[in-house]
């Protein structure tokens, strides 16, 4: 008798923020491993194109509109996703955005908007999908956090606060889920080449990078690819039952030095 029943053959995966970057790469990676995937983001049309590509490659995928800042949207998304691909065995919370403001220049509404998307948005997915996982006695919830939790950066204070909230929630959830068979995990990427930050004014981007260098951050010029982070998510959810990759930080490898 094994200590744990193995993962079921069919493990549907729900991915938020799947229209771009890490979420899109994760949906593709999980589909490539045979998981049916439900892709959610506000740009449902973009998710639909990615889902069509996945299906053309032989995978199973549906695209559904999702705004994690809106409770009704999350409720409708999670219900429609489970109707379409079956009860969620995997949830990946990757939706997010980022403004380049100093904390004292942000008004409270803008601060709250970051917390809504990153922290409350992640909790909304948990509240709608994790009770079913607990009832079934298995499942994986992955929070895409950020290395800013370990090393805060200037000009993203609301984001830093929200991601600290995400990891605090995830840590408490790990304790509450202990013994239920449901694994909550944190994947903490370093700098990754996605659409995040591309909407910043180029002058502001220059200033921000100088500040990061001043604070000992941005030590080399390499970025991760979204697929690198997706590989980490796939490893986390693919870990055999009985093993839990509770926190995985992924950093870009520095360029090779000429010797
Ligand atoms: N890029 C990095 O260097 C880096 C580093 C560490 C952690 N991260 C984290 O990685 C995650 C993914 O970011 P990314 O780098 O892949 O950026 P990205 O390419 O900009 O993707 C962000 C995704 O989040 C979605 N999104 C934003 N607001 C949403 C909302 N209210 N409801 C639903 N979806 C929403 C976007 O889709 P729509 O606009 O279509 O809604 C998009 O699919 C984020 O949690 C981010 O904090 C990124």
Automatic annotation (TrEMBL):
PROSITE patterns: ADH_SHORT. Keywords: Oxidoreductase. CDD domains: SDR_c. Gene3D superfamilies: NAD(P)-binding Rossmann-like Domain. Transmembrane segments: none annotated. The keyword Oxidoreductase applies. It comes from the Bacteria. Belongs to the short-chain dehydrogenases/reductases (SDR) family. This is SDR family oxidoreductase. The lineage of its organism: Bacteria, Bacillati, Actinomycetota, Actinomycetes, Streptosporangiales.
